[in-house]
Write a structure and sequence with these properties.
By secondary structure, the protein is mainly α. The protein has helices spanning 5-35, 39-59, 63-66, 71-74, 78-110, 122-147, 151-176, 181-208, 219-240, 244-255, 257-288, 297-324, 326-334, 342-368, 372-392, 398-424, 434-450.
Amino acid sequence: MIPFPHNFRHTFTWVALESLTYYGLLSLHQVILFQYTTPEMYGVIGTTYALSYMCVYFLIAGFDKALAPFFGRYTKNKNSVKSLILYQALPTYGIAAIALSLLYLAKPYLTPKFHYLDFLSDGLFLLLIVKIFIEMTRKGFKTFLNLTYQSNIAAMAEIIAMLLYIVIVWGLFIATGTITMAKVFVPLVVAISISTLIMVWFVRIWYRQLPTSDEGISRDTHLQFLKNRLFTMGFHMNRLFFTGEFLVPFFAYKFGLPTAGILKLASKIVSTFSIIIRRVFETALSVMLANVQTFAHEVRVTMFSFITSWINQVIYALIIFFAINHDWLFTSVSTLHTELDLVHITYAYLFLSLTDSIFIAYEQFYIAQERAYFLLSANALSLLSFIGATFMFSTLSALHTLALLAGIRLVSCILLGIYSYAKWRIKPSLQVQPFALIGATAISILVFLLTK
C-alpha cells in the first residue's frame, strides 16, 4: 500500500485547480496583451518577467525546493521554526539584499551593453527589486502551506491575486487606452503582495498551534539542509536554462526582442497545458516523498511507479489534445505575426516541455533521498552540451535551437533512467490507462467541437 494517498490527492487536487485557473487566466491575459502591444514591447515585458523570476529562483537558494525532507524536523515546535528563520531564512534575505543592491548600482554600466535595459527606468528597476523580495517571501510561505496540507489556502490566494491583477491591468487600459511597463508591473506587485499577506496570515495561525519547547535544531541538521539547498538550487538553476525563464532573455539577446516576444507567448500557450505536470506533480510529490527515506525499498519502487503513471497519463492527454485542437489554438494569434513562425516555435517548445516533464519524478525522488548533487551533475552536463553545441553551430535559428535543447534533455533523461534503475531498481510506468485515454480523447473532441 502506498503511504499518504489521501494527502497526495488533496494536494494534487488543489494545486491542479490553482495551476489550471491561474495559468489559464495568465495565458489569456498574455494572448490579449500580445495583440495590443508591438512585438518589441511584448518582448520587453516577457524578458522582464523571465529575468525577475530567474532572480527569485537564484536568490531563494533552493529553500522552497529542498525543505520537504527536513520539514518534520524544523516544525517539531515553535523553537525549531524560529531556528529555521534565524539560520536559514534571514541569511538568505541578507544575501539577496546585497546582490540586488549591487545589481542596481551596476545598472548604469550595464545599460550601454544591453539594449533591453533602456526600457527600464530607475523607478521601475526598484519596483522589480521589491517584487523579487515579495516573490521570495510568497514562495516560502506557499511551501509551508503545501507541506502542512493547506494547499486549498495557497490555491485560493493565488487565484484571487491573478484575478485582481488582470482586473487592474485591463481596467487601466480601458481608462487610459495605453499599456506601459508601469501599468503591467505595478498591478502585479499589488496583487502578489495581497496573496503573500493571505499566506502569512494562515501560516501564523498554524504556527500558534505548535507546541512550545526548548528543543532546537542541531548544527548538523542546519548544515545538511544548507548543503541540500545549494545542490538543489544548482540543479534548478541549471534546469532553468531549458525553460522560458532563461530562453526568453537569451532569445532577446541572440535573435531580437520580437522573437523573444514570440517565445514568451509560445511558452504561455504551452504552460497553460503542461504546467499541471511541472507545478502540480512537483508540489504533490514533495509532500508525498517528504518521508521517503523511512519507507522500505519495495514501497519506494511502488511509489515511483505510481507517480510516473500519473505523470505519463497527463503527457498522453496533452499529446492527444494538441493533435486534435491544433488549428484553433494558433489561428487567432498566428495570423497577426506569421512571419515570426509562432506555430513551429510553440511545438518545439512543447516538445522541450514534455522532455522536461519526464524529469519530475526522478528529481523529486533524488531530492527526497538528499541526492540533489547527482541531479546537479546531470543537468550541468546537459548545459555544457548545449553551450558546446551553440558555439559549434553559431548560426542555428530559434527553431533549431529549441529542437537541440529538447534533444539534449531527452538523452539526459534516458541516461538518468538507466542509472536510477541500476541504483535503486526504480523505473517509470509507461502503461496507458484506457479510461484516462478515453477521457482525454472525449474532452479534446468536445473542445474541438465547441470551438468550431
